[in-house]
Amino acid sequence: MTTATLAEVPVDTSIQIPQLQSDPYAVYRRLRAEAPVVRIPAIKRIMLTKAADTKHVKENWELFSSDDPLTPMKRAFLAHTLMRKDGAEHKRERDAMAPAFKPRVIKGCWQPLYTQVAEEYVGRLPRGETVDLFTDLAAPFAARCLTHLLGIPEASDADMIRWSQTLIDGAGNFGGVPELFEKSDKANAEMDALFDACAERAKADPDQSALSAMVNADDPIPKSQIYSNIKIAIGGGINEPRDALLTILYGLFTNPDQLAACKSDALWDAAFEEGVRWVAPIQASSRLVMEDTEIRGHAIAKGEVVMTVQASACRDEDLYDDPESFNIFRPKAPHQAFGNGPHFCQGTHIARRMLAQIMLPMLFDRFPNMTLPDPEVVKFWGFGFRGPLSLPVTLN
Ligand code: HEM
């Protein structure tokens, strides 16, 4: 297509951030049908909602860089993390953490350890009572597993959860609110002090963790990058398994036939994939356009920022029948909840193992008659990250 025949990207001024936080899926359904490439002034980006387009952008990193200049991530992390790097520079840093994510290590090291953690955390849930699984299980379980994977087991669950949220709030602090950066600065100082101590231990006594792999490498990446990439994993390794677990449970409780099938036939892997497809824990990722190009016949200029909405891609009618429903029996089809291309989630297999193979079967084994007494109280929220804000269940 020549430049002359390309259309301008349409603009939608009606879409505002509060609507994207409370009910994004209605917006995405309309956009997929009417304007799959659309400029949204409220988010200062061009939004892409079709699966083919989000995949195309994520896979073509030379044309669509991860170094989104609009997010204050560098300010929040006081570093340029691997998530915002491209090409060889990105690969070197990602490879540095890779030994901790190898299937052999997951099976031999993290699976038994995470099973112990799950036994402890499920074991302390009070039978017969109603508890919020967000605060009482999903968040602390995700935090504890992550401390082991990263090599910082001295960190408390509460600190991990606070650091993670502080980094996320800082990276999303588009308005530059000083207090949010003061909090992220304080969290960075606390994390740096802990990492110094843990790095010394890992050098003296190496283990399978990401920190140990990085500090003991033959040709280590700089310490600043080791620390900032541990931080990116803290910022991105708690919310997603937490929200995925709560979403899957909500989907099962509100579809009792599917829950019954899961319990009788151990369909936890299918429940996991369907849960993350249905409500992708990371809903969207942005990319910087490096050269003039086109998407779906629209001119996209160098310097624009495109937002790939994997949440919408995961509900694209081109790929799924009845995409808005939670249905663990739907035919297998690849989804984009873990992204695509070089930045494909490094924790994918760990998350699957933690939830589908450990937590979900154990939870229903211990509490086979667990119920969600009032599904109406469960509210999903979030534009960048999304999941239930609470999940009050009765444990029986
Ligand atoms: C259900 C759980 C999870 C989901 C849905 C999820 C989703 C994602 C997505 C969509 C991305 C790509 C972002 C982009 O393209 O810009 C990503 C990247 C990443 N995830 Fe996950 N994630 C999950 C769990 C985890 C866990 C447990 C870890 C453990 C540390 C982790 C570590 C990472 C890292 C390090 C990256 C950056 C990879 C890179 O930039 O090369 N994730 N994740």
Strand-helix topology:
Elements: H1 17-22, H2 24-34, E1 37-40, E2 45-48, H3 51-59, E3 64-65, H4 73-77, H5 87-97, H6 103-123, E4 130-132, H7 133-150, H8 157-171, H9 178-204, H10 210-215, H11 223-237, H12 239-253, H13 256-265, H14 268-278, E5 285-289, E6 293-295, E7 298-300, E8 305-308, H15 310-313, H16 348-366, E9 380-381, E10 387-388, E11 392-394
Helix pairs in contact: 6-7, 6-16, 7-8, 7-11, 7-12, 8-9, 8-11, 12-14, 12-16, 14-16
Bound molecules: protoporphyrin IX containing FE.
Describe the overall structure:
- There is one protein chain.
- The protein has 396 residues and is of the alpha+beta class.
- The protein has a single domain, classed as Cytochrome P450 (Cytochrome p450), CATH 1.10.630.10.
- The protein has 16 helices and eleven strands.
- It has helices spanning 17-22, 24-34, 51-59, 73-77, 87-97, 103-123, 133-150, 157-171, 178-204, 210-215, 223-237, 239-253, 256-265, 268-278, 310-313, 348-366, and strands at residues 37-40, 45-48, 64-65, 130-132, 285-289, 293-295, 298-300, 305-308, 380-381, 387-388, 392-394.
- The strands form four sheets. It has a five-stranded mixed β-sheet, with helices on one face. It has a two-stranded antiparallel ribbon with strand order 4-11. Strands 6-7 form a two-stranded antiparallel ribbon.
- Strand 6 (293-295) and strand 7 form a beta hairpin.
- Helix 7 runs antiparallel to helix 12.
- The longest helix is centred in the middle third of the chain and has 27 residues, at 178-204.
- Bound molecules: protoporphyrin IX containing FE.
- The site of protoporphyrin IX containing FE has 26 residues, from helix 11, helix 12 and helix 16.
